[in-house]
Design goal:
The protein is α/β, with parallel strands linked by helices. The protein has one domain: TIM Barrel. Helix content is about 40%, strand content about 10%. The chain has a six-stranded parallel sheet with strand order 1-2-3-4-5-6. Helix 3 packs parallel to helix 4 and helix 6 crosses helix 8. The radius of gyration is 19 Å and the shape is globular.
Length: about 290
Amino acid sequence: MAIINRTPDSFWGGNRHTELDSALEALREAVEAGADIVDVGGVRAGQEGEVVDADEELRRVMPFLEAARGEFPDLALSLDTWRSEVAQEAGAIGLDLVNDTWAGHDPELVRVAAEIGAGVVVSHTGGLPPRTDPVAVRYADEQGDDALAVVRDVLRVLAAGAAAAVEAGVPAERVLVDPTLDFGKTTRHSLTLLRHTGDVADLGFPVLQALSRKDFVGESLGLEPDDRLEGTLAATAVAAWLGATVFRAHDVRATRRVVDMVATIRGDRSPVLSVRGEPNGDAPTG
């Protein structure tokens, strides 16, 4: 899942496409690099940056979605929004996915997704409203305040959100679950959740991991966003091995190669070539 941000203030400067021509060129590069899904957003996730109302969000994303659908009619298009009115209008161009990054803050959004025939990403933000950065976040439940409380909370919220999406009319196979690292979480929470990707996969829905250049990578390695690619790819490989199947990424080509290599090691994908040491160098690759 390639990221196209139609924003002037996204946390990473390498993905700010305020001009439509720039966004469309990024789209073409992402498709050429191996993107299966393109996710466009018109509002920065964090609290820094300008206030963006629904009208401005639509002004940013609609021209891109219309042009993308015209140029790539078979490409899966995703809209990163928490607003049902934005998804409703964007649905006219044939959205494939609504990426609800803020965990059902607008309860109508899942109903709109079903109405327009789109899948939905169910996320977990620890109860925080949109554009809220975490401060002094703790997780505790009936089993106590421990390292795994965040895992239990994520599994509970994602299971409930997925069930609500299916009840609203979204086909189960079009419901993705995202543990949503960094959102409502400390770096320790995010690292714990990454190690428990397999538990998220056991919920029975495709798992989306949005890891790209995030703060948990930066804090783990002491690096700013420009230098977080290698850490992101390491996290991607771990998540892929543990069962995640969709990766929201700024760096599409590198991510595609990592995911394909992990799939090949697992035996889920055949090598492109398999001739080394084989008789006549033409052994079957299956």
